[in-house]
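Think of the structure tokens as a kind of shorthand, similar to the way a musician reads notation: each symbol stands for something richer, in this case the local conformation of the backbone. In the example below we present two proteins back to back. Begin with the first one, reading the sequence and then the tokens, and try to describe in your own words what changes along the chain.
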Amino acid sequence: MAFGGADTIGKPYADLWKYSSTNKWTWMKGPDSVSAQGVMGPEVLKILNYPKARWAFSRWKDANDNFYLFGGNYFSSGYFRLNDLWKYNKATNNWTWIKGPPGIFQDTGIVGNFCVSDSSFNPISQIKPNKYH
């Protein structure tokens, strides 16, 4: 899976693509326009949901082949960071907003002590733009 990215001046995308074993790309979800604002519902799967456009984010896949997306950078008259968490279900072709302030720039996050869990915690995205953007 490949999500987002940026054009030559740093404006981000929110499109999601799948690459197959037959060397073909398939556009799965999201608009093909820059700086998409995203659509989010409160911690539920909604067919129209998709994350705000971004680049330089964290991502991983779980044992059930779900794709997760956390944080990232957004450019709009300057660089901003995001720290929301999203899950994409390949079987249903839908995004679910999981946690964190959706689409809020420069959120400071909520942290506690090492090795302590709390439902109020949310890490901050520490991603910084590189010299090319």
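Once you have a description of the first chain, move to the second and do the same.
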Amino acid sequence: MDNDYPDSPEPMHNIVLIGFMGCGKSTMGRILRKKIGYQHTDTDHVIEKEAGMSIPKIFEQQGEESFRDMETALLKKLIEQQCSKHIISTGGGMAVREENQALLRELGFVVWLECPPEDILAHTSKSNNRPLLQCDDPMAAVTSLLEQRTPMYEQAAHLKINTSELEFDEIACGILESARYHYGTT
């Protein structure tokens, strides 16, 4: 495994799921937890619990930058705690900061779950918990955000999986086989 952090102890064997909102990170995290018994950590849920409010409320009261600070702090905390054998589902914007891209890779094997804008909109249209999509033209917002974030996801990820035509079990098998290869285990 290439390790950009030579001073760190043994590598943390985590599977970190990144990607745009609505691409299945939380669902896949729960499925992987059942398959391999790792603890599942959903970063958005952890942040909501620590902040004592929902993500839309954080955006409304403190702004997006404050929320991004919370994401970075959580990644650092997980690394500091030497979190290992976790499936970590991240928020859709976790990789927008260059600092977070390096932290994600330090934390574990990073898998980018990707799907087309139409699927994203179908998966998120009934949710009021998506502050960046509460606008007059959610499709334009999704398309614009995807254009901005795609290079960031590419930078952070070890593996990219397009989820649009795959069953959850197929995705899980692909992730687990790739993670075994990445960590050099059988």
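Compare your description with these statements about the second chain. The CA atoms of residues 19 and 111 lie 8 Å apart.
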